[in-house]
Amino acid sequence: MDDEVTKRFSPEELESWNLLTRSNYNFQHISLRLTVLWGLGLLIRYCFLLPLRVTLAFTGVGLLVVGTTMVGILPNGRFKNFLSEKVHLMCYRICVRALTAIITYHDSENKPKNGGICVANHTSPIDVIILASDGCYAMVGQVHGGLMGIIQRSMVKACPHIWFERSEVKDRSLVAKRLSDHVEDKTKLPILIFPEGTCINNTSVMMFKKGSFEIGTTMYPVAIKYDPRFGDAFWNSSKFGMVSYLLRMMSSWAIVCSVWYLPPVTREEGEDAVQFANRVKSAIARQGGLVDLLWDGGLKREKVKGTFKEEQQKLYSKMLVGNPEDRSRS
Predict the structure, then answer these.
(1) Mind listing the pLDDT tens digit for each residue in 39-54?
(2) Which of 7, 135, 145, 225 is most exposed, with the fewest beta carbons within 10 Å of its own?
């Protein structure tokens, strides 16, 4: 059974096969020539491209940790900010090359500026480096342990990123205050947020959480659209862990995408946070050629709420029996 919601949580199926078996699960032997081509492609991707890309990825992450730690020693000031920006851009661009990402940026005059919030549709964890390789942002996220924790602690020394403890994430007032304090300082980098809260397969944009839209600041919408013919960027977190996902990305031919910087927008008079979020979401969907859905991306992991079911049942019943006014006329 197919519907417009659950199919957004699985990889987009291509209409034609492109020598990547992962793009067509109904693959059958067609001819010896295609089989030989597929085998050669497999050797190139796994024996040549993958080791090179893994080396670049470790180089980029290593330089990021070392570079931001060294910059963090410097006193706060314009020189520290300048070095921090150069280190972040250099390392993110190395990581982008580790994916052989081919990115086309449109309308760069609308790039996010200090004191604002950049909001974008979310397909993959690599959305961050796709955007950060063209400009510096203040990241928002939960504090992690392990390697990710080391990276977070080194990054925050050089740049005022916003990391929350696990106990703080659910405190909406605290989160809002931290974000508001950041955007009020016009010397700080724009905040990068993905309001969907989960990864969608890049065929649609789902409901934006209203939290970041309650802050009275300028929003900079960004639309990201991937070309699945060369590599599927969607992260199905319920099926693949982070490491296996990144290995799949690095063993693809390339990651091809387009990024559109939309004109900045502010909350209109009489407009509440939900209406503002929906207006921004519609603009992103329209520019990226994506389907604009009202459903919550949280349905990826949770059951549908009873109120949603009742609303859809009422709409379906109206389709079957019509409105009372229509029946009275007939």
Answers:
(1) 888 888 889 999 999 9
(2) 145
Give CA–CA dist 241/255, Å, rounded.
19
DSSP state of 23: G
- Which residues lie closer than 8 Å to 222 by C-beta, 6 or more apart? 112, 118, 119, 120, 131, 259, 260, 261, 262, 284
The answer, as to whether pTM is greater than 0.90, is: no
Task: Note the pLDDT tens digit of each residue in 82-102.
Answer: 999 999 999 999 999 998 899
Q: Is the dihedral of CA 17, 23, 26, 29 positive or negative?
A: positive
Tokens representing 298? Answer: 């949280």
Count other Cβ atoms within 10 Å, centred on residue 163: 17
Per DSSP, 67 falls in state: H
Q: How far apart are CA 141 and CA 37, in angstroms?
A: 43
Report how far apart, in Å, the C-alpha atoms of 171 and of each of 130, 131, 196, 302, 316 are.
29, 28, 18, 21, 38
pLDDT average, residue stretch 155-183: 79
- Residue 283 corresponds to which tokens in the numbers above? 């603009």
Residue 8 has pLDDT above 60, yes or no: no
DSSP characters over 120-184: E--S-TTHHHHHHTSS--EEEEE---HHHHHHHHHHHHHS--EEE-HHHHT-HHHHHHHHHHHHH
The tokens describing 76, both together, are 């706060």
How does the average pLDDT of the chain come out, rounded? 82
Residue 129: closest CA among 158, 91, 156: 91
State how far the Cα of 179 lies from the Cα of 162, in Å rounded to an integer: 8
- Write down the residue that tokens 């304090």 correspond to: 181
* Residue 239 banded pLDDT, cuts 50, 70, 90: confident
3-state secondary structure 204-244: EECCCCCHHHHCCCCEEEEEEEEECCCCCCCCCCCCCCHHH
Parallel, antiparallel or unpaired: strands 101-106 and 255-261: parallel
Counting every residue written for the chain, the total comes to 330
